[in-house]
Each structure stands twice: as C-alpha cells, then as structure tokens.
Design brief:
561 residues; 14 helices; 37% helix
C-alpha cells in the first residue's frame, strides 16, 4: 500500500518528505498492536513484525531513529533554529522553512509504538533500540545538556511530550536513569516561563497560557504526568493531570465531547485553547488529535481512579466528535471539525489526525469490560463480546443492544463454571435507570462510590442481566464572545445537530429562556427531534457530517436572566 510506504520511507530514505512524517509509523504500531489483541489476525501480526524489523534497521549507531537529514537532527540542532527562521507548525506560507522542530516528536512516537508492540510481542532487540534512542536523548538533553524546551514549537511543549514515552521505557526496564530524565523534563518545563504546565494547573492558572495553550500537546504532557504518578506515587503529578482534566472539561469541551480551540491574539494558532468567553461555534475548531488525546487522558484517569465520569467523557467524545471526524466510508477523515460548519473537509491522505484517531477507537475498545477491586466491571452498553477470566467463571460475556440509539441492554453470561462475585455496570451520562432484571426477575442494585451500579450473586451459564434505561433530553448553555449565549441539545450521550448546507439565517430560540427552548423540541417517530413548527430537524451530530452537509449544533439564545 502507498500508505505503508509512506510510513517507513522517511526513515529508510532520509530526509523525509515532511517534518513530522516520522510520527505516523509509531502511531500505526500502537493502533495495530491493540487491534491485533482484539482480532489475533495473522496478517496483521506479520505486518507489525515486518514494520518493526525495517524501522530498527534504520537506527544509526548513535541511537538516532528519526527522519531528518544529518544537519537537521536534534543532535545537530539541539535547540530550535533562530527565531527569524523558526518553524511555525501551522503557517503553510512558510513551507520553505518547515525543516526543524519535530525530530524529538518522532522519537516520542517511535518509543510509544515500539514499547506497545514489545509488550505484546516480547523482543529484547526492540527494547535495546528504545534504550539507545533514550540514551541519545539523555546525552543531548539530560542534566547539563541543552534545554529541551528550547526545541520544537509553542515554547517547547511539542518536545516535552517525550515525557510519557520516557516513563513508559522506565516502566519496561526499571532503569532509574529514565525516571530521572523524565523528572528532569518536568524541571525544565517549570523553569520555562512560557510553559510551567504543572505549576499553572496546581495554582488555578488553567491551560490557556502554558505552551500557548496548544491543546493536543498539553493533553499529551498531562498523560506524562499521570504516568509519573503511577511510577512515583507523587501526588502533585496526579493533581496536575486531574486539574488539567477538570479545567478542560469545564471550560474547553463542546457538547459533542470535542476539546475546542480557536486562534486569538493571545495564543499561537487555531489548535490552541482559548478562553471560554471567546467561544463562537462558527469560529472554533476541534483537531482530531485533540479528540484522541482527550479520550486517552480520560481512559488513563479511569484506570488510576476508577470513576465513571472519566468513561462518560471518553464515550461522549467517541460517539460524537470522533465519529464526526470520520467519513461514513471509514477511510476518509477530517483534520478539523467544528460544531457549526457548512461542510466538513474529508480527505483520504495521511495527516497527524488521520493516524491518531484510529488509536482512540482501539483504546476505547480495550476499556469495555474489566476487573476493578475484584468486581466484574462493565463499562459500556455497546454491543460486544468479551472473554471472562477464571475469577468470573471463564467463558464469554456478551452485551447485546442498540446503544447509543437505545440504552436498554441485555448482558448474557456464557460462563464455564458457577462463581459468586459482584457485577457492576455503568450507565452513560444522561441515561436514567428504570429497572434491572436477572433472568426476568426484578432485582435491586446499589450505586458504589465510583458511580457504578452493582449487584452480587452467584452467576452461572445462561444468566441474563437486563438493563432497562431511558436517555434524557438535555440542553447545554454556553456563553461566548461578546456575551452571546448559545444552546445545544443532547439525547443521553448523543449530541444533536441540524444538517445545514449553508449558514442558516434563522434563529429559532432568539429571546427564549432555556426552559422555553427545551420545551420547543418534539421527538419524532424516527428518533430525530424537531424544533416546534420551524421545520428544523435535529439528528445525532455525526449524522449531520456528510459530503454535502455540516452540523449546526449550537443555536443563538439571546434571553434575559
């Protein structure tokens, strides 16, 4: 495939064709390895092994494993080029200057992809290659070396995303040098007045200023802090990640679950977080990489803390914003979407977002069912089939239903042996539980401290846990630029939008109160909603994103308090 050639070509024929061409192979290794865990596909296993073999064959004796020519590597230029020549990651008009700034970024994703692969397919040669990459990074950027935050873009925040991958290598090797380097990266970030992500989040400073608010990279750095917490137990790392999540959830998240960004006079470009008061649904963007990294942050916080709210947030982004980025043909993707736009720009070329978003889907699939505190924990109402461990009787558990269209679900236990254990399940945000039955008989459930419903019994082959639930129709109110208020609607976890092919001139909720606006919605027999007698229909957000239409998710609502 042409795509496969593009993934490896920049390594085998340096320099690559694009400053961040090298990221794609590491991302593919990550997603494809997770896919193999789900499918066991032999062809995929062979493709993974061959890609890793070819990548490792391009590693230089000093450990370098990037796509840059010898005079442009981070070793030759450990700090970025002079300001007058600095590469801007978004300015297409400066294409001739787009040579530097993303070499360490490639090494981040090489480490990420290779370590994910090696965890499933153990291979000491892969670990050795990762060590050699990290050792070179330490030689250049370690104690007494160059300042990592002076390399790359947005005050160095693209370079410091190395943090998570270096901690992953420490987790694999237990080599204290790598943990020390990770904490050294944190020290350099805190010493840079334009970065200081941790101190900003620990003191209520938010995510707009550090790294000029670059959304994707801020969340990637938060993943690094979370991994550092898991390795060190230092609470300030956990609080940084949690505070960052809370800040983004409260001030920078659309009803679709997409982390929105906007270019302003106080940040760097359209991929940077803006203040809540600068919201305008026709002007903001959602970068596909932001969707992916937000989902990843939610899932990893769930792994650490087990709270259902993190799965709620990941699920909303998956079923709305992320699916809106993907064309119905499954092959084309949008780099950017917007909550209000006339026509999404679907393309079939490889971009950073197109190689990121499949990773989000695979990561979400890996968090459907698991074990928490000895409980069988069911984190989804989506149809799936999962193998059970011996602790839960072995065999298979099947979730059957039509979620997210309908949250009513049946969960079937096809176990090999009887076991007594607690089964817990989560209802998506915006869904109300009506009744729970086991084998047709109503049962009582309790809610635990993590937000899951639970029941304990002796489970055996053929048991059916039936969940009857109903999605709520809800409205979100967002105040934005110039004091303008906007409203958006959702049915359970599914955001609703109007299909538009041009910017509408009507404002059906002008002058209405929130209660009056919500009362104007009528449920149709096909599952859509209409707005009173206006002729406007609202459908699931991702269904409004087509070749010939875009979504209007937010509506003006100029009402008095």
């Amino acid at each position: 495939m042409a795509e496969a050639g593009y993934l490896i070509d920049g390594f085998e024929n340096r320099p690559g064709a694009h400053p961040w061409q090298g990221e794609h192979l590491g991302k593919w290794l990550h997603a494809a390895t997770l896919t193999w865990l789900m499918t066991g596909d032999d062809r995929l296993a062979r493709a993974l092994a061959k890609s890793v073999e070819r990548l490792l064959a391009t590693q230089l004796p000093n450990g370098y494993l990037g796509t840059y020519g010898p005079e442009q590597t981070f070793v030759a230029l450990p700090e970025d080029v002079p300001l007058a020549q600095r590469h801007d990651d978004m300015d297409r008009g400066k294409a001739k200057k787009r040579r530097g700034g993303w070499d360490t970024w490639t090494h981040r994703y090489n480490l990420y992809g290779l370590l994910t692969f090696e965890r499933v397919f153990p291979n000491e040669a892969v670990v050795d290659a990762c060590r050699r990459m990290a050792d070179l990074l330490i030689e250049v950027y370690g104690e007494g070396g160059a300042d990592l935050t002076h390399y790359g873009t947005r005050k160095g925040i693209s370079a410091t995303t190395l943090l998570e991958s270096i901690v992953m290598l420490y987790e694999r090797t237990s080599d204290a040098r790598y943990l020390a380097f990770a904490e050294h990266i944190v020290e350099r970030m805190e010493a840079n007045p334009g970065l200081r992500l941790m101190s900003s989040l620990l003191t209520g400073g938010g995510v707009v200023h550090p790294g000029e608010g670059k959304g994707y990279q801020i969340m990637a750095n938060l993943l690094g802090y979370l991994r550092l917490y898991r390795c060190t137990g230092k609470n300030e790392y956990l609080r940084t990640a949690v505070n960052g999540w809370n800040e983004i959830k409260a001030k920078h998240l659309l009803v679709t679950g997409g982390p929105w960004t906007r270019h302003t006079d106080y940040n760097g470009n359209r991929e940077c977080f803006a203040r809540a008061e600068d919201f305008d649904p026709w002007e903001v963007s959602v970068e596909g990489c932001c969707d992916t990294t937000w989902i990843q942050l939610c899932l990893q916080l769930f792994e650490v803390l087990g709270e259902s709210k993190y799965l709620d947030a990941a699920e909303a982004t998956l079923y709305n914003s992320l699916h809106g980025h993907q064309h119905a043909d499954g092959m084309r993707w949008c780099y950017y979407t917007a909550p209000n736009e006339v026509e999404p720009a679907y393309v079939d070329t490889i971009t950073c977002c197109a190689s990121s978003m499949p990773r989000a889907m695979e990561m979400a699939a890996a968090h459907l069912v698991g074990e928490i505190d000895g409980h069988l924990s069911i984190g989804t109402l989506a149809a799936c089939r999962v193998e059970l461990s011996e602790a839960f009787g072995g065999g298979v558990l099947t979730v059957e239903g039509d979620f997210p269209a309908d949250p009513t679900t049946e969960i079937r236990f096809e176990t090999r042996v009887r076991r007594t254990f607690t089964c817990e399940f989560r209802l998506p945000d915006g869904v109300v539980l009506r009744q729970v039955r086991v084998n047709g008989a109503g049962v009582d459930v309790t809610t635990n401290e993590r937000g899951f419903f639970e029941l304990r019994r002796r489970w055996e082959r053929g048991d059916v846990l039936a969940i009857e639930a109903e999605p709520e129709l809800r409205m979100d109110v967002q105040e934005g630029e110039g004091g303008q208020r906007w409203i958006a609607f959702s049915q359970g976890p599914v955001a609703l939008a109007q299909k538009v092919s041009s910017i509408p001139g009507d404002e059906p909720f002008e002058g209405r109160t929130p209660a009056e606006a919500l009362a104007m919605l009528r449920r149709s027999t096909d599952g859509s909603h209409s707005i009173a007698d206006t002729g406007i229909a609202l459908v699931p957000y991702h269904q409004a994103c087509t070749d010939s239409s875009g979504p209007r998710t937010y509506f003006r609502c100029a009402y008095a308090d």
